[in-house]
Amino acid sequence: MNYASALNTFRKEEVAIAPYGIRSKDSKGRQFPEEDHAFRSCFQRDKDRIIHTTSFRRLEYKTQVFINDEGDYYRTRLTHTLEVAQIGRTLARALGGNEDLVEAICLAHDMGHPPFGHSGESALAKMMVNSGSFNHNHQTLRIVTKLEKRYADFDGLNLCYETLEGIAKHETEFNFSDLLDYNPDSRGHLEAQIANVSDEIAYSAHDLDDGLRSGIITVDMCEDLLIWKTIAEEIHWVGPKLADLDRHRFINALINLAVTDTFYTSQEKITSAKIKSVDELQRLPYNVVGNSESWLIQNRELKDFLFNNLYRHYRVVRMNLKADMIITRLFEAFRKEPSLLPKHIQTTIEERGTDTAICDYIAGMTDRYAIEQYQKLFEPSLLP
Question: CA torsion sign, 154 to 157 to 160 to 166?
Answer without folding.
Answer: negative
